[in-house]
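Subject: for your reference before the review

Hello V.,

The reviewers asked for a structural picture of the protein, and I figured it would be easier to keep everything in one thread rather than splitting it across files. Below is the amino acid sequence we used in the manuscript, unchanged from the supplementary table.
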Amino acid sequence: MTTKDTYHINIDNDSLYGTLLDKIYEYMETGRQTLASANEILESVKIMLAGKVSRENNGVDVCINNIPEGASFDGYLFEKEYAKASSRLYL
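And here is what came back from the structure prediction:
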């Protein structure tokens, strides 16, 4: 079941990278995997791509198992927009 609403989740960006490093360190120390698997990450990318295709086609339903061949994200546009929105990390 899906909705056509948008829900926002607030994430503490100040601790996001540090938390990721903590999880990687934990895995290296214990061997216990607590991060998302590659399949889980792929599934989330498919969901985002289906949403993009749907948005580009006036909200038509797009099943993640039926994403049109050739549908993709524009990596160069993402890089440009991400850089514009980001603050400088290093002096």
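For the response letter, the relevant points are probably these. The helical segments are 13-30, 38-56, 75-85. The chain has one domain: 13-85.

Happy to draft the paragraph if you're swamped.

O.
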